[in-house]
Amino acid sequence: MVTEATIKELKTIVGEDNVLTSTLERILYEYDASVERTMPDVIIFPTTTEHVSQIVQIANREKIPFVARGSGTNLSGGSIPTRGGLVIELSKMNQILEIDLANFRAVVQPGVFNLDLYNVLVEKGYLYAPDPSSQMVATMGGTVGENSGGPHCLKYGVTTNHVLGLEMVLPNGEIIETGSKALDMPGYDLTGLIVGSEGTFGIVTKIIVRILKTPEAIKTMLAIFESLEDAAQTVSDIIAAGILPATLEMMDKFTIGAVENFARAGYPLDAEAVLIIELDGLKDGMERLSERIVQICQRNKAREVRVAKDAAERARLWIGRKSAFGAIAQLGPNYFVCDGVVPRSKLPETLRQVVKIGEDYELRIANVFHAGDGNLHPLILYDERTTDINKVLKAGMEILELCASKDGTVSGEHGVGLEKRNAMRMVYSEDDLNVMKQMKMVFDPENLSNPDKIFPQE
């Protein structure tokens, strides 16, 4: 419980308008994009690193748990305030502090939207590669916390491959800096440790990222299949042929129908699966590579391979893919998102078994995922008014167990949060988990920073 005296003290730091305490306001921050809900006691909007430090010092002194939050798009319950306490909402820390084109670097605050950074850079002929499907509203702080990926992570890697340095407020209020604009800093790679730690080590307040030159040429293709398995085999065969596209994205029939009705992207409604395949790089050799990809698709019984004729057609294809999670709402009022990973070569058999799990539980499952790196996103459709949520969660856990049994893992980019805590035992031993817990306690001995996440509960 947060006392009135503590609330008054918080208001002196950020101003009265930046502290929310009414029941209605707190209800708005009790959930994210997962199925979990817990109401916080107070929501605070800092605008500077010093504000965050002062807030956290009070929380540490009073032993109040706290959770950093951006747009609340987390899909694994990572921004749920399980013990009440403080939600430290970073949306007002939304400045792009520096664009350093000479050194291929940018410096941003955690509340910057991923898409805003991309748009600023693309006008200058540069890009920031990680592009989660929710990039229109996903904040940079959240992508750092979850080590987010996106369609282009196949070629360019996930967030950790592009973050060079961080400023972070520790759970005792101290401010530290890790990494820098330079490469290969001496000492421990604390930046790499913090990226993907889901806010359990402290609150990131500044991020130094690597930026890239915009590719000289881009070619986007839509391959249409009568079988989900044929599409999955095509993914494996393209990579096995030594071709590394920028993206290899897959959608099944359920998803195609929802997306086409929503975005009018030009997807065929009678197909069982489509692949979005994108090449980027130098113009020289791109036609040859695209021809090889078309041949591989045809060898795997592709009905048709369409090549986007211009930037507008390419944009339509991507609008469809990027809007998939939102469009799925047409198929049911609720869905639960899984986030497992398997080796590409095991995609066909894994997808077969995912379909069977849906049939066994009498639940519809739509599939849309980063097929190129084996990152599955089965969307389990349900209606919370009539469906037992435990049945949905059990089906999701069975899908994760399936992925782990295929030499895969239980999260590719959405994080562990609350929903996949117990799945961690599928891929880690107790000794492994104990080492991670000890690392958490080094940073946060009082267990105040985003508690109850990542680790299995007894």
List the helices and strands and how they pair.
Layout: H1 4-14, E1 19-20, H2 23-27, E2 42-44, H3 49-62, E3 66-69, E4 86-89, E5 96-100, E6 105-108, H4 114-122, E7 126-127, H5 140-146, H6 153-156, E8 163-169, E9 175-179, H7 190-194, E10 203-210, E11 212-213, E12 217-225, H8 228-240, E13 247-252, H9 253-263, E14 273-281, H10 286-299, E15 304-307, H11 311-322, H12 324-327, E16 334-337, E17 340-341, H13 347-361, E18 365-369, E19 375-376, E20 378-382, H14 389-405, H15 430-443
Parallel strand pairs: 2-4, 3-4
Antiparallel strand pairs: 1-2, 5-6, 6-10, 7-11, 8-9, 8-10, 12-14, 12-15, 13-14, 13-18, 16-20, 17-19, 18-20
Helix pairs in contact: 1-3, 8-10, 8-13, 9-11, 13-14
Written account of the structure:
This protein has 4 domains: 4-89, Uridine Diphospho-n-acetylenolpyruvylglucosamine Reductase, domain 2; 96-213, Uridine Diphospho-n-acetylenolpyruvylglucosamine Reductase, domain 3 (2-Layer Sandwich), CATH 3.30.465.10; 217-326, Alpha-Beta Plaits (2-Layer Sandwich); 332-413, Alpha-Beta Plaits (2-Layer Sandwich), CATH 3.30.70.2740. It is built from 15 helices and 20 strands. The model has no long low-confidence stretch (mean pLDDT 95). A hairpin with a 4-residue loop joins strand 5 and strand 6 (105-108). The strands form 5 sheets. The protein has a 7-stranded antiparallel sheet, sandwiched between helices. Strands 5-6-10-8-9 form a 5-stranded antiparallel sheet. With 458 residues, the chain is of the alpha+beta class. Helix 8 (228-240) packs antiparallel against helix 13 (347-361) and helix 9 packs across helix 11. 48% of the residues are buried. The protein is globular. It starts with a helix and ends in a 15-residue tail after the last helix.
